[in-house]
Amino acid sequence: xxxxxxxxxxxxxxxxxxxxxxxxxxxxxxxxxxxxxxxxxxxxxxxxxxxxxxxxxxxxxxxxxxxxxxxxxxxxxxxxxxxxxxxxxxxxxxxxxxxxxxxxxxxxxxxxxxxxxxxxxxxxxxxxxxxxxxxxxxxxxxxxxxxxxxxxxxxxxxxxxxxxxxxxxxxxxxxxxxxxxxxxxxxxxxxxxxxxxxxxxxxxxxxxxxxxxxxxxxxxxxxxxxxxxxxxxxxxxxxxxxxxxxxxxxxxxxxxxxxxxxxxxxxxxxxxxxxxxxxxxxxxxxxxxxxxxxxxxxxxxxxxxxxxxxxxxxxxxxxxxxxxxxxxxxxxxxxxxxxxxxxxxxxxxxxxxxxx
Length: 356
Known about the structure:
Helices cover 30% and strands 32% of the residues. It has helices at 14-28, 38-45, 101-113, 129-135, 153-158, 166-180, 198-208, 219-228, 272-281, 305-309, 334-340; strands at residues 4-8, 53-60, 63-77, 80-92, 119-122, 139-143, 146-150, 188-193, 213-215, 234-241, 244-256, 259-269, 295-301, 314-315, 326-331, 348-349. Strands 1, 2, 3, 4, 5, 6, 9 and 15 form an 8-stranded mixed β-sheet that branches. Strands 7, 8, 10, 11, 12, 13, 14 and 16 form an 8-stranded mixed β-sheet that branches. The longest helix has 15 residues, at 14-28.
């Protein structure tokens, strides 16, 4: 094989990169239909709040055969701002896999990026995790837990097995879950928001301050992340008590387990009871038009999240999770690594992952 060249992406190479991304999308049958589109790529890697991304490529005979994206965000540790790189959208074309090219590309990219960044984090799949741990000195923090609130249990079970009487069984379980969920009182109501207004930004800021390690969910970040590219893809839903916002979620409708469900991308709340009230009641709201929804799915790291959700949600066994998310991190400073190694210091939501 001719020599593989590793380098930082130049602007004139973007069309060639998108062509390679398109080919890999076909090879891997990616569900993200926008991943190779110029507008999408520019939004994701050039129009983000920092306006900065580090993108690296592997070339064979001047043709791009691998890529490695690192968008840059503001990250706070103990209230001090740092630059964090989120390693995502990494791949090598089919004919160049199992030749150590990905490992060499990752090493080249991470070595160069260390000159520009304070720390990294990433959520590798089971195929690439060993590269980060063995060769790039990343630290493993945890596998993100997934929690599910069934709304139509029969639909979920039918996606896995066929058995007469599942509707009756499903209705029984739905009744049980609904029985343990918290109903709204007369002063509480579910509200749909079109934009991230000041009261929403305020509750996110208040919530972020409870954690030592987190991405800054600023107005510019939230607008870019959820509103700038596709206004119809995400919905902003809150719970108000006596007209005061008490909890907020950003959701996305996806087909998982062969049925439609709600993915909770981001969340914030003032009191824990308001998060569960919002999550377990928004499916009943005709105003929100969440039709044919079978479940609410949430993952992340937040203080006492398992205790907050345990009365209404089920924790999904790892072998049933559609895509396990392993959180890895790395910093040049030992003092930062010591803080980041404490899981309770982190605030992580599905929005931190590259699901767009």
